[in-house]
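sanity check both lines:
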Amino acid sequence: MGTVETLTAAGIGAGDEVVVPSYAMADAAEAVRRAGAVPVFADIAPESLCLDPESVAATLTLRAAAVMPVHLFGRRADLAGLRAVADRRGLLLVEYEQYGQYEQCEPPAPVDESTRRRWANAAYLNARLRGVVTPAVTPGVEHGYRSYVVRVPGNGRPDRDAFARALRSRGVRCHVPVQTPVHRLPSYRRDLWLAQTERAADQCLALPVDAATGERELHRVVAVCNALGGLVPEAA
């Protein structure tokens, strides 16, 4: 059963609110709209980049009907914390189902060679990168590294974008994983400030870690990032 069907089967629709992350693609918010409900945006935890239970709790109104976490880049949302918030209010907890470029966690399956290679590449970068803030590693919490998302220290988006241009000019593949938080898109615009979401949108950058990334490319990523030091001043 898909996400929209799950919501409608639970009787969630017109007049109901479903809490979703803004730091993600718009798919989850769109699924809420297709069910006839209203997406309400909560902030993320800085370590996981997924919904923060405390922010979700502060967002709930009397019309709240469900909480919909999105697992990002290989990290799972704090389902235990989110379930505790949902259970206190009798809300439905629905994990958004999507396995694409920006998602997440691994679908249940045997660990194949491609996945092992991705993990090994991520471990290589974790141990050697110095010019950026590497993904948080929490004991007991697995990271599937569907994307390897770092933070570029400095003054937010200008420094991150300059850093990305410098990487590309030196042959390093990279992209901004979430260009614009959903609550700032024209069709979803909300007058609210989500501090961690804004910070992530301004700082985060995805580096190559897929199975096709060879040792030579990994070495180049480390050498270039560490040489740049995380800060690249704009030319006058």
Summary: The longest helix spans residues 113-128. Residues 45 and 52 are 5 Å apart (CA to CA).
